[in-house]
Amino acid sequence: MKFSTFYITILIMALSLFACKQGKKHTSKEESGSQIKLTESSLLDTIQYQTINYFWEGAEPNSGLATERLHLDDDYSLSPKQTVTIGGSGFGVMAILVGVERGFINKEEALDRFLKNVDFLEKADRFHGAWPHWLDGETGKVLAFSKKDNGGDLVETAFLIQGLLTVAEYFDGNTEKEKQLVFKIDELWKSVEWDWYTKGGEDVLYWHWSPSYGWDMNFPVGGYNECLIMYVLAAASPTHPISKSIYEKGWARNGKIVSNKKYYGEDLVLNYYEHDNHSVGPLFWAHYSYLGLNPNGLSDQYADYWKLTQNQAKIHYKYAVDNPMQYKGYGDSLWGLTSSYSIKGYHGHRPESDVGVISPTAALSSFPYTPKESMNVLKNIYKNHDSLVGRYGPYDAFSFESNWYTPRYLAIDQGPIPVMIENYRTGLLWDLFMKNKEVQSGLDKLGFKYKKN
Predict the structure, then answer these.
(1) Average pLDDT value over all residues in the chain
(2) SS3 assignment, position 339
(3) Which segments of 72-186 are extended strands (E)?
(4) End-to-end C-alpha distance for the chain, whole angstroms
(5) How high is the pLDDT of residue 276?
(6) Is residue 239 pLDDT above 60, yes or no?
(7) Which of 47, 148, 193, 279 has a CB 3.0–4.6 Å from the CB of 213, allowing a cystine?
(8) CA proximity to 53, closest of 13, 18, 16, 1
């Protein structure tokens, strides 16, 4: 299964311009001699094509799901190459839908891929209906994310279900294969025991459970962070729902989730951290739950979620323009901090924990919130810093300050890019997910107001 011939030609042309250099040092436009002239529309097409291909061409072969990481240096010492990421796979199936709509991928081939995905997921390890953070793509067995994290991961499961429900809305069921896919997704959705993850009836959802270690990970999920979608889906479940009080007491912490503070002149709207005093989180918090859940017009008793997410992106932008640490390259065309690879391993980059590393997904997945500012970053990377772009789009992270980058990708960073760009361009994924009747029922139950299609 391959991308369409027309877009293969585009990709070859793009890759001839954006040469994949394997060294550890960044090469500027002036050093490489590249002269790139692309319109804004063709730039968006190019980056969507490349990042979608991570999930199409770069998928784990047996399951067809998203590999945790793709390293062009072929170093997989951090985890086996066949490691499947559950959350990243949820992002990936949404990215493939974008590929179909853009003409990159044949719809029938995408349907076959999705059937392959759900057939694997049906047989893979689950724990009270929840998949683990990682699976072995060859066997379907759990791969431990950490010593005690070898069981169900309800947050990653929520990201996967968000993607699968979006896929189910895309296919109208006019053929037997489509009916089969929609039925299988519905069965997987209904099998997740969201209410069981209240640890026996507490007023909060817990992130993890392990058959070996029980509740030892001890992570009750209180907001605000990337996990809003988990509470929405848990309330929406037709078989294992949670009550509104669990959302109010667990996620919203009896109203303590609300913030009246400002940062860089922007309202924070919600408290970003339950257990420390950092003002704002990494930018993926404005992306993961909102790949399908449309924040534009979304509100409840605690927040206007468009204001919340847009303000987070604007804060990151203003921070980079201010550049209080005087890091090289930061400014109106290079901004955005999020969790990603870093100079020393992996780091949760954000304004109050900044080490001079830019992660392209941060600004590029923020297109709906900051279109002009995000476009500045896209143009800057592709026109002036082509050594930072490889086969599957911009590399995961880089630092001009430390003259460092890595020719590596992470599914959870690449996936939001084409999805959120498409939401900016057409609203495709938002429209699909938000028309799901059970999702609407869950939002109604929790007291949300939202745009109805």
Answers:
(1) 92
(2) strand
(3) 83-85, 134-136, 142-143, 152-153
(4) 34
(5) 87
(6) yes
(7) 148
(8) 1
DSSP line for 380-445: HHHHH-GGGEETTEE-S-EETTTTEE-SEEEHHHHTHHHHHHHHHHT-HHHHHHHT-HHHHHHHHH
Q: Which of 302, 218, 222 is nearest to 260 (CA)?
A: 302
With contact defined as beta carbons under 8 Å apart, do 192 and 161 qualify? yes
User: Which amino acid is residue 58, in one-letter code?
Assistant: G
* Distance (Å, whole) CA 224 – CA 233: 16
Percent of the chain with pLDDT over 90: 88
Tens digits of residue pLDDT in 269-325 = 999 998 888 999 999 999 999 999 999 999 999 999 999 999 999 999 999 999 999
For residues 99 and 56, the answer to whether their CB atoms sit within 8 Å is: yes
Q: What are 158's two structure tokens?
A: 């929520």
* Residues linked to residue 340 through DSSP beta bridges, in sequence order: 347
Please, which residues have CB within 8 angstroms of residue 218's CB and are 6 or more apart in sequence? 206
Q: For the chain, give the number of residues.
A: 453
- Using DSSP, state whether 155 is helix, strand or coil: helix
CA dihedral 182, 187, 188, 194 (to 10 degrees): 130
Q: What pTM did the predictor assign?
A: 0.93
DSSP single-letter state for residue 225: S
Q: Are 397 and 358 a contacting pair, CB within 8 Å?
A: yes
Contact between 236 and 243 under an 8 Å Cβ cutoff? The reply is no
284: tokens are 């993926």
Which amino acid appears at position 328 of this protein? K
Q: What is the pLDDT of residues 368-402, one digit of tens each?
A: 999 999 999 999 999 999 999 999 999 999 999 99
How many angstroms separate the CA atoms of 71 and 407, rounded? 6
pLDDT in tens, 315-324: 999 999 999 9
